[in-house]
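Review session, final week

We close the course with one last complete record, chosen because it touches almost every idea we covered. It is High affinity sulfate transporter 1, a protein from Rhizobium paranaense with 583 residues. Go through it on your own first, then we will talk.
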Amino acid sequence: MAVSFHLPILRGLGGFRSDWLRSDIPAGLSIAAVGLPSAIAYPAIAGLPPETGIYASIVAPIAYALFGPSRLLVVGPDAATMTVLAAAMGAVVAAMPAGTPVDRVAIAAALALGVGCFCFAARLLRLGILANFLSRPILVGFFAGVSLSILVGQISRFTGVRIESDGLLAPVAEILRKSASIHWPSLLFGLAMFCLLWVAKAMRSRIPGPVLVVVVSFLLSAIFDFQGRGIAVIGDIPRGLPSISLPPISQLPLDKIALGSAAVFLVSFGAGIVAARSFGAKAGEEVDANQELIGLGAANIAPGLFGAFPISVSDSRTAINFSVGGRSQASGLVSAATLIAALVFLHSALRILPIPALAAILATAAIGLIDVHELKRIWQISRMEFVFALIAMWGAISFGVLNGVVVAIVATLIYLLRKTMFPRDTLLGRIPGRDGFYDMQRFPDAAAIQGVAICLIQGSVLFYNADYVRIRLRDIAKSLAPDTRRFVLDASAMVHLDSTGAAALDAVQEALQQQGIVFCVAELNAEARALLERAGVADRIGAMSFFDDKEDAIGSFRLQEAERKAVQNETPQFREGSHEQDV
């Protein structure tokens, strides 16, 4: 298989014109304004310092602008990705020898490099289809479970009480036991900022809610000295950008780094491509998942080299870029430059931001991950898919986010198997006065062809469904009319066939032979026929029983019947002549 690796360098700036700056500059400023609060808040999910979120929000868009194929997508910290990252980091820390110093920033950076490597490897192997591996219902359910995990994680930040329990209900029970230790000013302020976010959203404020919360929190913290009153604040943030460096990967458990990177990659890439295709459809921009792997790979390698963490496509930032009218990746570069300026010149303002305000931003983002409308829609469309969405949600809640990824993947595999384990079958017939063949279940006017049964199997015949197909074809054969002389298997929808499937067709041929019915196969693809030949099944069926299409099979049957009748008509005359000669 030929492998190509085309670098989409500067494609996001392709065709750039100077007059686009009138749109890109306001878009970049808006992205920075919306992104700064989340950049400061999201690292707390994984126990990382706030500056890492700012670093990621600076270097990732620059890397994507250089290597990303889209002109509109904006990358950055993502709440769901951060939750998976937190679980992956927990697994790495647990695997480290007791007494080893834990550098959470180094672990996060190593995971970011791992995610970038997985992106590049997937691109080399053209595995962009992995974006579809986690189905939309599975993702919706998984993110709903993740959102509940994020909400529980904000209890300590809202209340100022250290929570040591894990899971969903245990932290709630713990805060009830420790209710006497709740710092009520922190809780009341956090709830007030939470309400402000929802009021801003309900009133469709021109100033984004997170920006409003950050400004109000800073002013109140400066005026009333929140830190002196016991309300936790962010504290000192390093000035300027960090120097480029590699994390000490050799000192970390590489197996846990690899597994954690794979989990973050699957979730961030799957969710990112869903967002990319959604915005691409609105903008009339085709999204190539394989090319996006290069942009996302570079956008994860960059934070890994600058002491940050993995990122994904950001829904909120891309939506802002889209709504303000950004025309190219210049808006992402403007956003990065704005955040650099904020890091240098707003250092004092950032350090006094109250932690409960950031908890309110995280809680609001978490609630936004629960797509109730989509869950209702899935329920209306398919009860089975809704069940799998609930399984994915239950996995993220009950087994932890990292194990929840495994549950989501297993649920996807079960869902795929369930869809293909029982392929639909139907008998085909003719409608008088019309060409072609028709499903006799769907078209009451369709009638069977005398002497011939045509059965369509709508799916591949593989090891896990071969026995079901064999039994179905046997049962259909038993119910055929007594004058049926030929059974034609329409294999036009049989994309794949394995050795177990070949054995099943061989058994069907033998059963039909015992009934005096000739088994024929029509429209079988070349790969499947070659497999039947290697298995010796094609010889037992007979070379004359394979047809390029169903019309050929019917024509062959009619010719054979005509020859048979001609022989029957000639036989009595021959016998009469022989009798006269004997006399």
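Two points worth writing down before the exam:
The longest strand covers residues 452-458.
Confidence is low (pLDDT under 50) at residues 574-583.
Good luck, everyone.
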